[in-house]
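User: Some background: our group keeps a shared notebook of sequences we're curious about, and every so often someone picks one and asks for a predicted structure to add to the entry. Today it's my turn. The entry only has the sequence so far, pasted here. Could you supply the structure so I can complete it?
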Amino acid sequence: MDIEQAHLNDINAIFTVDAEISKDMLERKIRDGEILITKEEGKIIALLRYSFFWDSIPFLNLIKVESKNRGKGFGSALLMQWEESMKEGGHELLMLSTQSDEDGQYFFKRLGYRKTGSFEFPGQEDEIILSKTLKQNMPNEAHQTTSSSPRRV
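Assistant: Of course. Here's the predicted structure to add to the notebook entry:
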């Protein structure tokens, strides 16, 4: 499974999977390196799009896996790659949100995210805020190899 940063030549394929934002915004996010994709036989089958809450805390905006490929580890692999990238960038906290009636909250909770708040919009389900604290390697741990080392995807 190959996970990579999206490239501008992927924009039309990404837009067919993620039409929740404009093509102009997608282009900006691609240029800023804020979209990860997984391809199979040249086709995008999963993507992760993020931004920064308060301009400093990585915030997962969207993770989407093609329906026929759900349950095969693509979403988990994308999320773990993103987490590792954010950790390498010095970030210690990650955030995301999901509606209270969406099953996605259970996926994130299984992967260590915890509810840290919620808010409501009139006429909609509550939006749950989830966060995860990343454990930073101690200087003497950085060169040790353990079974919990990140896996290459």
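Suggested note for the entry: The chain has a mean pLDDT of 88. The first strand starts at residue 2 and ends at 5.
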